[in-house]
Design brief:
CATH architecture of chain B: Roll
Structural class of chain B: alpha+beta
Radius of gyration of chain A: 16 Å
Largest sheet of chain A: 6 strands, antiparallel
Distance between the termini of chain A: 37 Å
Number of helices of chain A: 4
Structural class of chain A: alpha+beta
Radius of gyration of chain B: 16 Å
Helix content of chain A: 25-40%
Distance between the termini of chain B: 34 Å
CATH superfamily of chain A: Hotdog Thioesterase
Largest interface: A-B, 48 and 46 residues
Helix content of chain B: 25-40%
Number of domains of chain B: 1
Strand order of the largest sheet of chain A: 1-2-6-7-8-5
Shape of chain B: globular
Order of helices and strands of chain A: HHEEEEHEEEEH
Oligomer: heterodimer
Strand content of chain A: 25-35%
CATH architecture of chain A: Roll
Number of strands of chain B: 6
CATH superfamily of chain B: Hotdog Thioesterase
Shape of chain A: globular
CATH topology of chain B: Thiol Ester Dehydrase, Chain A
Strand order of the largest sheet of chain B: 1-2-4-5-6-3
CATH class of chain B: Alpha Beta
Largest sheet of chain B: 6 strands, antiparallel
Order of helices and strands of chain B: HHHEEHEEEE
CATH class of chain A: Alpha Beta
Number of strands of chain A: 8
Number of domains of chain A: 1
Chain lengths: 172, 153
């Protein structure tokens, strides 16, 4: 898969965010791209994740976790770009429609965008696919609650900022 | 690193359910599904009711600072609960296939045991509708509620 992380300046931020989530490390989720408009995450195949033992197809819950993570990261990136601040938004609701099973032994990609933001809610949508985004496995829509940046906590903020310790946006 | 999987032989869902019912041990059902082991879920039967349990597990955390269970894991736990509920009470011959899943998060899921129960709202010939509730300390204070459609054959 061809990547251009240098075109997508928020890839590092989204990577640090996803790496903070224990379950995402267990799943081996990897952020391939992130910008203020979108996030693209790879989920590698593993036999541990099988939900349908006779076919080797992964469990729907894994796809839901991928979608939730991708949408949540898209919100973090959109808020960071717009307000220069860090907010961790809890999921309010998430709906996933499954079009077809994921083919075993191949990674699944989750592409999410935060398409609208209000003062209290962020709206997202996402697509999960394998070979082509035009041939999706699943579609998702989710809304996320916005909470104040002070709720993030110093430890988490530092983990997210990595080396870019100067968070200009603190006063914003 | 693709650990290749040979599709196992056809899973005898009815046979497994029958055996679980006879032994009154439904954990037996979950042993066939790697993902159920991955999140560490269990099930117990109380009369005609199944109650699903997901013990606190560091691997299931999302936000480690709070700490809170990853929302996707809660969804996966509830989806798997609905699948088992359908297999046991509708005697499906195959593992039901998920069509859609919609979850509302009502409270943060903290780092402790979670429970779920399911209600089959409607069972048609091809599709079943299931609603699922999930709680931690108090059954009346749900942390999430969900509904899902499954294809059954």
């Amino acid at each position: 898969m061809k990547l251009n992380p240098e075109f997508f300046p928020l890839t590092q931020l989204a990577t640090r965010f996803v790496d903070q989530l224990t379950q995402c490390r267990r799943l081996g989720l990897k952020v391939l791209e992130a910008s203020e408009h979108h996030v693209l995450i790879e989920l590698p195949y593993s036999t541990e994740l099988i939900g349908y033992p006779d076919t080797g197809v992964i469990h729907g819950g894994v796809v839901t976790t991928l979608m939730d993570t991708a949408c949540g990261s898209a919100v973090v990136c959109a808020i960071f770009e717009k307000f220069k601040s860090l907010e961790i938004s809890p999921t309010l609701d998430l709906r996933v429609d499954y079009m077809k099973p994921a083919i075993p032994n191949k990674p699944v990609y989750g592409f999410a965008e935060c398409y609208r933001m209000t003062s209290s809610v962020a709206f997202t949508r996402a697509i999960a696919y394998q070979d082509s985004i035009d041939d999706p496995i699943a579609h998702a829509v989710g809304s996320f609650m916005r909470i104040s940046p002070e709720m993030v906590g110093e430890e988490f903020r530092q983990a997210l900022m990595g080396n870019e310790t100067k968070n200009k946006g603190d006063s914003a | 690193m693709s650990d290749s999987v040979k599709p196992a032989k056809e899973l005898d869902v009815q046979g497994i359910v029958k055996r679980a019912t006879e032994l009154n041990d439904f954990s037996h059902l979950l042993e066939h599904v790697p993902y159920a082991k991955f999140i560490g879920m269990a099930v117990e039967r109380f009369g005609d009711e199944l109650v699903f349990r997901m013990p606190a597990n560091d691997n299931n955390l999302g936000n480690p600072v709070l700490p809170a269970i990853h929302g996707g894991v809660i969804a996966g736990f509830m989806e798997m609960s609905a699948i088992v509920q359908l297999m046991v009470f509708m005697q499906t011959s195959k593992v039901p296939k998920i069509v859609d899943f919609s979850i509302d998060y009502l409270r943060a899921g903290y780092h402790k045991d979670s429970f779920a129960e399911c209600r089959i709202t409607r069972q048609g010939r091809r599709v079943a509708n299931v609603s699922i509730n999930c709680w931690q300390t108090n059954r009346k204070q749900l942390i999430a509620t969900a509904r899902a459609h499954f294809l059954i054959e």
